[in-house]
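Researcher: Please predict.
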Amino acid sequence: MMRLKVPNGIVNADQMRFYADCVEKYGDEGGVVDITTRQNIQLRGVKIEDAPDIIDGLHARNQTSFQSALDNVRNMVGSPLAGIDDKELVDTRVLCNAINDLVSLDPVSGTRGNPQWGNLPRKFNVAISGSRDDYAHTHINDIGLVPTPHAVTGEMGFNAVLGGYMSIKRVAESIDSKMWIPADRNSVVTFTEAILRIFRDEGDRKNRQTGRLMWLVEKYGVDEFKAELIKEVESYNRGVKIESTQPLDTTPFERRSLLGVHKQPQEGKCRVGFLVPAGRLSQKECRIVADMADKYSDGEVRLTVEQNIILPNVDEDKIDELLVESAFGPDSRFKVNPGMIEGNVVSCTGAEFCGLGLIETKSNAESVARKLEKLVNIDREIRIHWTGCPNSCGQVQAADIGIMGAPAKKMDLEKGKPVAVPGCKIFVGGRIGEDAHLSLEPYTQGIPLADEDLIPVLVEILKKEFGATDKVLVEDLVAINE
């Protein structure tokens, strides 16, 4: 696998075609492209001997895979609606690119790869939100920047939350750092650099399970960490001032959907978000996306942390033409207006390509969502996340319903005793947006993954916890498999 860096999740048609070309030689099954939960791209099936040519091709297209994995700053997450949102508070594009350059561009040679930030105690995640929707999920990042105007001056800036992460050892929601910074490039880059310097030199390198930023902040104490960070920032002499956390806007606000057709503030322009089931793209689908982008969105493609795609800046008078494209026809996996369940499925890589995965996730996530759509009626979007192991790359604790690979047993009629089978734990009640919350304890566990075992449990949860009603009886497996 080759993981890229795609700051703010923005790519173009040429890059999409290049991804397809890169994996084509590995066949339809092995050579696929995944959209990740960090608005990023992963190329599957890549062999080490092919990597140099791919890296050269990426660099020729202003992209890189350098410092995209291991103990580095991972992909910069920003608002997928940056610059095209009438409720935008901050355009995150410049800031995401600036931090991406800070951590992965050599300031001396001007080439990709910056050894100064290439050996951190652990991986490091940064997310910058552009609106009250918090499409970047700041609460599960090491640094989360939440757009907030200054209460006195009205200047736009960010409240900083710190320490959010997910792992086998611990799942932690980010905490208030008691700090606010202006939303200009200099302040954001300086603030991030100062935290990275302290983390790089003082983070725990003896125990990888306690190596994330949260542990260092807790070791200091929030107030003491703030004081140390202010001292670090002042030592750079860049004129950056850190103030105390500013009050959040508490007027009613409802998080908006990224799927479907929505008008932009630009006259005559719309954004069109569509489902990419479980974030998995075939070579053919990559090229289809590229063709649509060239035809309707000036070649621009935007990725979301929900692993879906947005075509921005589509002419309003071309929307009807776009919606009848074969890419959204009955034989396509893409949908502009998917169901309340299938449109909100998120999945990690799973056992197919990850040695840590206890279960296969991608195909199960797509299949189970389709079946649940046939089984129940529900009047709100339900986010079902899948993760193959307790590392929770699929972020199950943030989901309405989270499915995590885990041991299970099922009666074997031939053997006359329970035997080990692929199974899961189920988490319920995670939230995203302004009212973000992580569900830390399993709702139930030891559930076999087979449809006849898992689907009835999920239907019951949907009915009991989210008000779903029966559309088809769950026992009617023939109907849901038609």
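Model: Residues 185-202 form the longest helix (18 residues).
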